[in-house]
Automatic annotation (TrEMBL):
<dbReference type="InterPro" id="IPR019965">
    <property type="entry name" value="PPOX_F420-dep_Rv2061_put"/>
</dbReference>
<dbReference type="Pfam" id="PF01243">
    <property type="entry name" value="PNPOx_N"/>
</dbReference>
<protein>
    <submittedName>
        <fullName>PPOX class F420-dependent oxidoreductase</fullName>
        <ecNumber>1.-.-.-</ecNumber>
    </submittedName>
</protein>
<dbReference type="InterPro" id="IPR012349">
    <property type="entry name" value="Split_barrel_FMN-bd"/>
</dbReference>
<dbReference type="GO" id="GO:0005829">
    <property type="term" value="C:cytosol"/>
</dbReference>
<feature type="domain" description="Pyridoxamine 5'-phosphate oxidase N-terminal">
    <location>
        <begin position="3"/>
        <end position="95"/>
    </location>
</feature>
<keyword id="KW-0560">Oxidoreductase</keyword>
<dbReference type="InterPro" id="IPR011576">
    <property type="entry name" value="Pyridox_Oxase_N"/>
</dbReference>
<dbReference type="GO" id="GO:0070967">
    <property type="term" value="F:coenzyme F420 binding"/>
</dbReference>
<dbReference type="InterPro" id="IPR052019">
    <property type="entry name" value="F420H2_bilvrd_red/Heme_oxyg"/>
</dbReference>
<dbReference type="GO" id="GO:0016627">
    <property type="term" value="F:oxidoreductase activity, acting on the CH-CH group of donors"/>
</dbReference>
Amino acid sequence: MTALPRSEYVSLTTFRRTGAPVATPVWAATDGERLVVWTRADSGKVKRLRHTSRVTVAPCDVRGRTTGPAVDGVAGFVAPADQAQALAALRRDYGLKFTLGNATSRLWHRLLRREGERHELISIRPA
């Protein structure tokens, strides 16, 4: 089992129903053996993960240019009971950047009076 990459940004590759890969640079905090990703609930990566849990993860820069080898992984959604621990990992790894981003997102969600969850927490483990 290969360890998942640790860097400020990782390229998370999810797969369409056709098998075509879609890579996206994301923040990923370490939480034990897993990586935790915070993303919009209506994002494409969330929709793709609903039908296949197969992912690859590689270290990258902010623009998504990979800087190391990709590792196969299995992704799933963080259970509500574990969300506080996952959010704490993101706050620990990203500090003020995550706190401000989360607060801004919550405010924007309330101002627009949108229904439902605005974000999803994704857990990634090595395959």
